[in-house]
Amino acid sequence: MAIHTSNRTDVNRSAILARLGADGPASRAELARVLALSPALITQLVKELLADGLLVELEQAPSNGGRPARMLGLATSAGHAIGVKVVADHVAFVEVGVDGRVVRSASEPFDATASTFIAELIERIRDFIAAGDGTTVLGLGVGVPGSVDRLGNGVVDSAQLGWTGVELGDALRRATGLPVVVENNVNALAVAERLFGLGRSHDNFLVVTIGTGVGAGIVVDGNVLRGASGGAGEIGHTPVADDGPRCGCGNDGCLEAHIGEGALVRDARERGVIAPDGGIDDLLAAADAGEPGAIAIYRAAGGLLGRTLAGVVHAVDPAFVVVLGEGTAGWRHWSPGFEPAFRSHLLRHRRSLPVEIETWQDESWAQGAAALVLAMPFDAAGSAGDQGRLIRERLVGQAVRR
Q1: E strand or H helix at 268, and its extent?
Q2: Where does the signal sequence lie (predicted)?
Q3: Of 1, 33, 222, 266, which has the fewest CB atoms closer than 10 Å, so is most exposed?
Q4: Which helix (DSSP H) or strand (DSSP E) does residue 311 occupy?
């Protein structure tokens, strides 16, 4: 087996499989164009995938002159990946093909603070896998709102879940017998964006999520930046006020304590914009109806997000920014505060930086977790320990058995 040293190159192998799985056979030239890779690199990667039995050469494509192009296709359905999103009150699941498309999904209630939370999570995961059609599962990806020491170990610290040092990866591996990759949920979305979204053609970008929390996935030179302990991208805990409200992390004045879903609802209740028992849906409905107080809350949140994000942009220099998360349902109300604050706080030459707002569904978090599995088969750099090798063995085994 060839030894590869670039995580970016490793992800590109997965991206080739994803592209062929999503859109069908393609030539090497088409893959190079769509994935923004050099013809020489595509030739190298395709050669290795052919040797592994994951790709096959098909009929030649018609030519308008010159040598006909040989088409490439997947040698096998290659199995599926399971993605799990864990939050405080529920768990979302998806099963996806190698192209990232959702085969099925589900959501179940879950209490992250219960004394039996690991046993309950295992039971729900087993039930979801058992309900499938028997297609080989390549691995299990889990996204959590918090820090994860290493993808392969999966030790979780999460203020939102109330977890400290939870050895989630080991517990799930023992219970399911599957390779398991655990990651911060926003980093998982960044991996999905790299494989299936706008990030396919960019090596440097920023994924920002707004909703229950505020977070960022930072992609630099094609790799998700994790930091020393897996906590890079926690922009929601950027201090923005000395005397601000208490954050769930225990500090005062964090960005998340000002513009997270709980903070917006708290402000709306205190100002009488929504009823004392009202929630985020009520706030959005009030803003949609033109209620000035609701509109002002969103506008202020957008302004604070814009100013903070401008600082992050100056630090990491992305080619573009993607905004995701449950909060984007109200982006039309965030935007009037965000755009002027963001643009005016950027250096002049960066003020045209693209900001893309992507549509959101709850299963998107779980799709991101599943993408962790699909990105790991060629993880020769070892960012997921043995888990990348185990996923690769299952993937190659599928092709061999075909």
Answers
A1: helix 261-270
A2: none
A3: 1
A4: helix 292-316
Which pLDDT score is estimated for 5?
35
112's tokens: 């992250």
Distance CA 87, CA 114 (A): 13
Q: 90 - beta bridge partners? A: 109
Partnered with residue 109 across adjacent β-strands are: 90
Q: Residue 215, SS3?
A: strand
pLDDT in tens, 291-331: 999 999 999 999 999 999 999 999 999 999 999 999 999 99
Determine which helix (DSSP H) or strand (DSSP E) holds 96, and give its type and residue range.
strand 90-96
Residue 235, both tokens: 């922009």
Q: Cα dist. 2→23, 32, 88, 274, 379 in Å? A: 28, 21, 42, 61, 12
Domain boundaries, the chain: 7-74, 80-190+363-401, 203-319+326-357
Pick one of 3.40.50.720, 3.40.50.620, 3.30.420.40, 3.40.50.970 as the CATH number of 80-190+363-401: 3.30.420.40
Q: Which amino acid, residue 304? A: L
Residue 238: how many other CB atoms lie within 10 Å = 16
Q: Which two tokens stand for residue 257?
A: 């304590």
The second-level CATH assignment, the architecture, of 7-74 is: Orthogonal Bundle (1.10)
Token pair for residue 175?
Answer: 């219970």
For the chain, report the end-to-end CA distance as a whole number of angstroms: 20
pLDDT at position 379 is: 60
Long-range Cβ contacts of 260-267 (<8 Å, 24+ apart): 260/211, 260/212, 260/213, 260/214, 260/236, 261/211, 261/212, 261/326, 261/327, 262/212, 263/301, 264/297, 264/298, 264/301, 267/297
Q: What was the pLDDT predicted at 271?
A: 96
At residue 331, the pLDDT reads 97
Identical fold at 80-190+363-401 and 203-319+326-357? Answer: yes
Instruction: Determine the pLDDT at residue 8.
Output: 47
In the chain, which stretches have pLDDT less than 70? 1-10, 22, 60-68, 75-78, 362, 377-383, 396-402
